[in-house]
């Protein structure tokens, strides 16, 4: 029996398409709102209903909420390229902040009771120390992080004023693909390390640039907390159950494993998976890259019954590689 209907924005994108799978598998009915600007209609599981619309299209969004009796929103839609947010900040304040405002307003107008928001570790900027806790200072160093922090602030104010609660999940570095091969990261021009590395391993690019080898880390390369996208999707389903069970409480939670890997450790893992050595080219640092970004995940482990199932760099790489091969076969 269905648990009820939820609306997933950005459900045709990388993380959203995995959340659609997790929500459907958990017994929710799902309606996706996505304008396919970076997503793909084929990435939406056919059990879900796809409404091709911008989240700022109030008529389409409210129509979907009312028609399906939506009780909760999972909000993944947004613009996600950090350097682009620096060169075109207004795009990010439009698509991440203003568009989120419209969506939240639609949720309130349609008496949707629960809201889950894709926030980011980029809200912390360069942390004073790692692992970083949720109450650490938030000083984003790019418009992307600020556009998300502003949406967190809106949600806090709206939840205080209206009968809606929320979970803001601050994702660390999302990677991997559905272990059953149903979805994965498919957008061209990827910049994320594991995606770039599996593209190199499958011959789509010739080498990997290593951005910086003089960081204050054991091997000098940047350290990040990589979380498997399917574990992250499961965290959303658990967060939804919590919001439904305790409607007066909202939550802001880091979503990471609490363990970091360096760029070279990631590339070694990809080499292990293929028995081929990817060419590494040491480059200068990328602007604004912190030495290390690792989640303190005590809060999410305490709040949710969620327990990571794929906290293993080799498993993340294996799933990312399998998806990259699927994409290559499709051409
Ligand atoms: N990938 C990461 O490592 C990461 C880390 C932290 C946070 N996030 C957040 O997670 C969310 C999903 O990211 P992703 O990596 O899956 O990106 P993605 O680009 O694959 O997915 C975004 C989806 O939203 C859709 N979309 C964008 N703007 C829209 C709009 N105005 N109306 C309707 N649909 C719209 C796109 O078509 C796409 O399907 C984003 O909000 C992102 O900021 C991602
Ligand atoms: O070709 C590459 C790509 C990345 N890196 C390095 O690999 C690490 C990870 O980089 P990347 O995969 O680009 O992720 P981040 O820059 O850490 O940011 C991601 O993770 C953040 C949360 O931590 C999200 O908010 C952002 O959306 C998302 O881009 C960093 O040290 C990079 O300098 C390289 O050396 N070579």
Question: What topology emerges from the helices and strands here?
Answer:
Layout: E1 5-9, H1 14-25, E2 29-34, E3 49-52, H2 58-68, E4 70-75, H3 82-87, H4 89-109, E5 114-120, H5 143-161, E6 165-171, E7 173-175, H6 193-201, E8 208-211, E9 223-224, E10 226-228, H7 229-245, E11 251-255, E12 261-262, H8 263-274, E13 280-283, E14 292-293, H9 298-303, H10 313-330
Parallel strand pairs: 1-2, 1-4, 2-3, 4-5, 5-6, 6-11, 7-10, 8-13, 9-14
Antiparallel strand pairs: 9-12
Helix pairs in contact: 1-7, 2-4, 4-5, 6-8, 6-10, 8-10
Name the descriptors.
alpha/beta, 14 strands, UDP-galactose 4-epimerase, domain 1, binds uridine-5'-diphosphate-glucose, globular, seven-stranded parallel sheet, Rossmann fold, about 325 residues, isomerase, UDP-glucose 4-epimerase activity, binds nicotinamide-adenine-dinucleotide
| Assigned CATH superfamily of the largest domain | NAD(P)-binding Rossmann-like Domain
Q: How many DSSP-defined strands?
A: 14
Q: Any guess at the CATH architecture of the largest domain?
A: 3-Layer(aba) Sandwich
What is the helix content? Answer: 25-40%
Structural class: alpha/beta
The main pleated sheet reads as:
7 strands, parallel
CATH fold topology of the largest domain: Rossmann fold
Bound molecules: nicotinamide-adenine-dinucleotide, uridine-5'-diphosphate-glucose
What ranges have pLDDT less than 50 throughout 5 or more consecutive residues? none
